[in-house]
Amino acid sequence: MKKPSIPVSKPSKSAFGKTGSWRHTTPKIDYSQCIHCYNCWLYCPDAAIIVKKNTAPKINYAYCKGCGICAQECPKKCISMVVE
Q1: Which helix (H) or strand (E) holds 41?
Q2: Is residue 37 in a domain?
Q3: At 72, which CATH number?
Q4: Is 26's pLDDT higher than 60?
Q5: Per-residue pLDDT for 8 more than 70?
Q6: Pairwise CA distance, residues 17 & 11, whole Å
Q7: Spatial distance between the Cα atoms of 73 and 78, rounded to a whole number of angstroms
Q8: CA of residue 9 relative to chain centroid, distance
Q9: pLDDT tens-place string over residues 28-78
Q10: Number of domains in the chain
Q11: How far lies 67's CA from each of 17, 22, 51, 73, 80, in Å?
């Protein structure tokens, strides 16, 4: 039996996913407290956090929507949301 087609949208980086002037808050990482657990990267719904091997996570502000999920999921609370 043939499976029904289900529309699926994969996250992708394109002009459509870029943050405009509507973002209200911006995450800032205190790297002196970061333990490189990468929870922020794991839970970011916009794939706006970049992780490279053996480095601290970096935020790509072009795609960050300012939702604050990264700050909520950080076990060391080293990510703070700053009003722009």
Answers
A1: helix 39-43
A2: yes
A3: 3.30.70.20
A4: yes
A5: no
A6: 9
A7: 10
A8: 18
A9: 999 999 999 999 999 999 889 999 988 999 999 989 999 999 999 999 999
A10: 1
A11: 14, 12, 19, 12, 12
